[in-house]
Amino acid sequence: MRYQRVLLKLSGAAMAAGSRTSPFERGAIDHIVSELLKLLQAGIEVVTVVGGGNVFRGNLAEEWGIEQAEADNMGMLGTVINGVMLRAAIAAGADVDVRLMSAVPIPSVAEPYIRLRAIRHLEKGRVVILAGGIGQPYVTTDYPAVQRAIETRCDAVLAAKHGIDGVFDSDPRTNPDALRYRTLASDDAIQKDLRAMDQSALLLARDHGLPVHVFNFDLEDAPLRIVGGEDIGTLVRGDVSSVNA
Length: 245
Description:
By secondary structure, this protein is α/β, with parallel strands linked by helices. The protein contains 8 helices and 10 strands. It has a 10-stranded mixed beta sheet with strand order 4-3-5-2-1-6-8-9-7-10, with helices on both faces.
């Protein structure tokens, strides 16, 4: 295997794919659980960070006249809700030990995030779900995902997207001639604002030599195939050249 420990970054939308009326969709959550279990069964240690956009989106702050800090607080709590749902779904689907850890203190629901404890859980073969971002407003879950990956000594970040096969040179939804990058230099992604992840997250990953794979999570077995060495989606790193697929 190319990697032995990875952080899987999911958007909140991954919990509700296909549903317009509910923050959760059974098929979407079953798919997440299935992909996580495949990694675990292959002997891969897995950290998961999930966004909270299906519960509350921070961009509603301006529309509703809410302070950004308050909107971000609600978003962080949304990630905790998603973490509880994911923990419950994994436990219901398999005999797997799961730990939910939160940067926002909420001890009756989740363990506090403690770096060395999280690493110990991974070493014992447990799935670790991290919620609450970094416990502070004004950051999306992209930055905490990269930060936690570095802290927990992950080999790579798998940045799951919904319906998008990687990073393109323009928006493939509006430009049918958009070209996908097979590999993308971090500096090019930042300078061209290609939106692979938040700029701050890409800078942090670049500075610590952390590979980021941006891929379509709808593709069956995609995380396992990436860990096994297949070039799916786009690999973003500081030490590669930008090459179209």
